[in-house]
Amino acid sequence: xxxxxxxxxxxxxxxxxxxxxxxxVRGVSFDLSAGEALGIVGESxxxxxxxxxxxxxxxxxPGVIKEGQILFEGNDLVGKTEKEMRKVRGNDIAMIFQxxxxxxxxxxxxxxxxxxxxxxxxxxxxxxARQKAIKMLELVGIPSPESRVDNYPHEFxxxxxxxxxxxxxxxxxxxxxxxxxxxxxxxxxxxxxxLELMKDLKEKINTSxxxxxxxxxxxADLCSRIIVMYGxxxxxxxxxxxxxYEPKHPYxxxxxxxxxxxxxxxxxxxxxxxxxxxxxxxxPTGCPFYARCEYAMRICQEQIPPYFSANAGHRAMxxxxxxxxxxxxxxxxxxxxxxxxx
Amino acid sequence: MSKQLNDxxxxxxxxxxxxxxxxxxxxxxxxxxxxxAVDGVSFKIRRGETLGLVGESGCGKSTTGRTIIRxxxxxxxxxxxxxxxxxxxxxxxxxxYRKRIQMIFQxxxxxxxxRMTVGDIIGEPLDIHKIAQGEERQxxxxxxxxxxxxxKEHANRYPHEFxxxxxxxxxIARALAVxxxxxxxxxxxxxxxxxxxxxVVNMLxxxxxxxxxxxxxxxxxLSMVKHISDRIGVMYLGKMVELADSNELYDNPNHPxxxxxxxxxxxxxxxxxxxxxxxxLQGDVPSPINPPSGCRFRTRCQYAMDICKEVEPEFKExxxxxxxxxxxxxx
Lengths: 342, 331
Fold this sequence. Notes:
The structure holds two protein chains of two kinds. Chain A has twelve helices and twelve strands. Chain A is of the alpha/beta class. In chain A, the strands form two sheets. An eight-stranded mixed beta sheet of chain A has the order 6-7-8-3-9-10-12-11, sandwiched between helices. A four-stranded antiparallel beta sheet of chain A has the order 2-1-4-5, covered by helices on one side. In chain A, helix 4 (110-121) crosses helix 5. The longest helix of chain A has 18 residues, at 188-205. Helices cover 31% and strands 24% of the residues of chain B. The radius of gyration of chain B is 21 Å and the shape is globular. The longest helix of chain B has 18 residues, at 194-211. Chain B is of the alpha/beta class. Chain B contains eleven helices and twelve strands. In chain B, strand 4 and strand 5 (84-85) form a beta hairpin. In chain B, the strands form two sheets. Chain B has an eight-stranded mixed beta sheet, with helices on both faces. Chain B has a four-stranded antiparallel beta sheet with strand order 2-1-4-5. At the A-B interface, helix 7, helix 8, helix 9, helix 10 and helix 11 of A face helix 5, helix 6, helix 7, helix 9 and helix 10 of B.
């Protein structure tokens, strides 16, 4: 436990809106080692972004962390004041968002915004900060950084803005980088550039990464461990190979089946997951996936399943994994292995 | 599933289509900028088939779709629908064709009027084209709702009461109301969650089979486009760079841009994606205001030669039904 960079224990976050309490995150626990890349996958409303905002304590009114602990290097962030959090943000944990244009301030130059972050957290002169800013831009692959440092965000393209965001985030050498859908707003070829960059930087500066995305393809490339979220809970957690090749949760299986396979010659029908995600104002008493699950049993409606572990480091929240669960031929046969090749 | 498509049975033919947006600025509007959004695109769509159109933002794929249905005026070229050139006819004549050509939009939140009930949204095209009234109108609406997997009771509700996937179904029901032959699907699934995308795609495929629809499917998600399309056209900066059967395009991509685009697709399979050799294109798409001379892709192309700067490559057939515009094919 001591070598874990981040330990999240039973995190519960709710939004107290006028329609009632929206239980966005309903008890999430996971941990992260130094230098590790963790992917959190889920659809809109699964609680993946709220989890990441909770880690940074950037929840906006009416969002509140109700319960749980966020231990960063052993210190609990939940009890920290706003002033104390300011030291953590940027210095220890940095974050990049989906839309770089709204995250950058349009009236300051890119350089100013990097310098601001450096001066806030490090004891350096303005000149040194500027040199550092240029170095950071070079690191993230901005051509001719000496002149580009004085550009405004609108003079950058979408991909370059995301690179600039990464430069700001990494300028104070954070131990953890949280990337919330960093490539969703970008084109495929630009997405490939940013993913290559993140892979490269991970090796160069050994920052831990939490990558939040809805795109299974993106996590398969970058992350060694994957968490699948649904209805505010972690449905499944395992190494990339475990989750993709031996999925244990029907939701994970469903996701894998619903994406088209590129190399298939014959047109095959996609297998969708019927129905829609649960309403988190009144979350179901049992498993959140119950209503859409093809392997559902009676107990699934009544009780939230505990985690069952399949292999070392591989756990899933599903009654089908209970030793006494009736055997279903199709369940446990699903595998994504070998269906894609290049 | 290979459909029997007759080459002579062309529903839509686009010939050298151009759409330039001209904006005037300066004190006396003396300066003009010309955005060459679509600059000479030609293709045919056969009855009952799905043509996919892919490319990055700004490549002109959506503009092509919108110009075909005359939401934009055509700058130059022809759009021949069922034997008649509709690129220059008046808007009132066009209204007749809008009964046969419909469109589904990307954003199911923005494309439905939030103050109208779902029944009225679907019924509006029936009123405009004077197709049905009263009880008959109601019946058609109910039928359409059921056809897209919703039910009668939904007719009295408002769009905000529906999820993204359901709203897209409403948009599809509205497009189907006038009984069209041809539907332009402009990024219909991009705003939807993965598990919902498959539901909508399956429905589009079912409707095509039942009603004999022809689709132009515009999207940037290449794996979904590959799944739904019979043939695929790849666009870059206002030009069509490659066009082929979807399997052929994925197996033997000819144009360097297509190759890069395909290799950039993140594959949801850890072993495969780690083993894959990715062609990472440098830089960004140039501005369509001042596109590069010759081949528009040359600034990012790893094979660029001297000729690419001077001569625009010809879009020609390099194998049966496989077209590509690249100088490498002339070697």
